[in-house]
Design goal:
Length: about 90
Amino acid sequence: MRRMAVCDIERSDGSCNQKGFTGGMKKVLLMLFPIILLAGCVHYYTQPGKSAADFNRDKQYCQAVAEHEAARKGTRACDETEACLIRKGWRID
């Protein structure tokens, strides 16, 4: 019995794209990649005696500073935000 290959996607030149990422799959992966990277930026912070309002104020300030610093240094904005919050006395929980 002869095995027949099934063509996943037939290209305009008549060739067959078997297995591998299709154009749609590549788009999905490209959209998920930044989300995966940003997932590494999610932390919980604590500082004894400080409220959620204090944290939100410091975080807002640090995010504004971080965008500028990240562009200048070529680093991730979330890394710069984290460094700023730590300088302000917040600890990663």
